[in-house]
Design goal:
407 residues; alpha/beta; Purple Acid Phosphatase, chain A, domain 2; 2 domains; six-stranded mixed beta sheet; 9 helices; 40% helix; elongated
């Protein structure tokens, strides 16, 4: 028997169980056959659409907006149902335990019909919250750009850079874009920050260079007083799709690198630049992608060649696991690291200044926002675009503005 058959059977069992419980909840709450079977029809249609999309998906096409939408619809109807099944299954366990106790004690079994309806109403009511959130996330949340501002103080910051501002964007993923008006709004918002420096920390496309063709003119209007610099992300290497031959992949990678020049960014490939102001300078380093479990092309030592240990240093590296495993304990003091990659999984719960949670935290120790260890900082940008899931729920697209201050 093929290895994939057993996991497929397990998945089918889970889907049937979830659907049965959710259908039972609708049946308990509503007497209308139209309501019940409309729910069933929508569920089946979403599953069929997803499986057709998956089985007809070709890695040579890359990840298309159609694939993303199929994934988005599946999550939109599936996650709310998990709430339903947890409550109803919990209620079933309670009933089974109660029946067992009653049978042992020779007592009389009480009718729980009214309780079942009450629990079903609560379950469906609670399920509408994530359902509405996912619908909003797909329609509007992915364009709900947030400007997050931080002020960081350093004792060894050159005096001339006191008050220097850096705008960071990351993870454009232009192959996912579908709405020019909304993306233009995000680009305008970046320019409104009027920062000294603009940096982009990788993943300009999903896979192919031509995904950026319709967006080059728009992003070429990004501005910064002292310059624009960028690095590559894991998606920029074309590793997540099948190519007809190695030369096509190589040509695509070269074309991806050329995009940065076309939109006016200085792409740093294991390199550094000195930023000068009033006779003083700081070092800006950019490495190729280095990620735990991903492409590890980045060479930090090469990027830091000829930089003095005492220089003030800002490092751009796409994957924050690089900071966790290599950078934060390096002999060189990398004062500030700028990363992206995680997207905060594009879904979670954030209450600014109080609470922040996403499943992403179970994969990355630094997954969204600003972190500090050993007097060194990393900012993990939540990303400008979106990928895989065509929306954002609670984890909004981010434009980061960091002001450097002399302590």
């Amino acid at each position: 028997m093929p290895r994939w058959v057993f996991p497929l059977l397990i998945l089918a069992f889970i889907i049937v169980l979830v659907e049965l419980y959710t259908f039972q909840a609708f049946k308990t709450v509503s007497k209308s056959k139209m309501v019940r079977f409309s729910f069933l029809f929508v569920s089946i249609a979403v599953y069929v659409n997803f499986f057709i999309t998956v089985f007809t998906y070709s890695r040579s096409d890359g990840q298309t907006p159609q694939f993303q939408m199929a994934m988005g619809l599946l999550l939109t109807i599936s996650i709310p149902k998990l709430i339903v099944i947890m409550l109803l299954f919990g209620e079933d366990v309670y009933r089974w335990v109660l029946k067992l106790i009653t049978a042992i004690s020779n007592g009389e079994t009480k009718s729980l019909v009214g309780r079942r309806k009450f629990i079903s109403q609560i379950a469906l009511g609670l399920a509408t919250i994530p359902f509405a959130a996912f619908i909003y996330g797909i329609i509007q949340g992915k364009y709900n750009y947030k400007v997050l501002k931080y002020q960081l103080s350093f004792k060894d910051l050159p005096d001339a850079f006191d008050g220097y501002t850096i705008t960071q964007i990351s993870d454009i993923h232009s192959g996912s874009f579908t709405n020019k008006e909304k993306i233009q709004y995000g680009v305008d918002l970046i320019n409104e920050q009027k920062s000294d420096l603009l940096v982009f920390t990788g993943d300009i496309v999903n896979n192919k260079a031509d995904e950026m063709d319709d967006w080059i003119e728009m992003f070429s209007h990004l501005k910064a007083k002292e310059g624009k610099f960028s690095i590559l992300g894991n998606h920029d290497y074309g590793d997540y799709m099948d190519w007809k031959n190695p030369q096509d992949k190589k040509d695509n990678f070269q074309a991806v690198k050329e995009i940065h020049k076309k939109i006016g960014f200085d792409l740093l490939l294991d390199e550094h630049r000195y930023l000068e102001k009033d006779g003083q300078k700081i070092a800006l380093l950019g490495v190729e992608n280095w990620g735990k479990g991903f492409n590890q092309a980045g060479d930090l030592e090469k990027a830091a060649a000829n930089i003095q240990k005492e220089d003030f240093k800002i490092l751009m590296t796409h994957d924050p696991s690089h900071w966790e495993y290599k950078v934060k304990t390096a002999d060189f003091n990398y004062h500030l690291t700028l990363s992206g990659h995680t997207h905060g999984l594009q879904m979670g719960i954030e209450i600014p200044g109080w609470f922040k949670w996403s499943p992403s935290k179970y994969v990355y120790k630094q997954w969204a926002g600003l972190y500090e260890e050993f007097g060194r900082y990393i900012n993990v940008n939540r990303g400008f675009g979106y990928h895989a899931f065509p929306g954002r729920v609670g984890i909004w697209p981010e434009i980061t503005v960091i002001e450097l201050k002399k302590a």
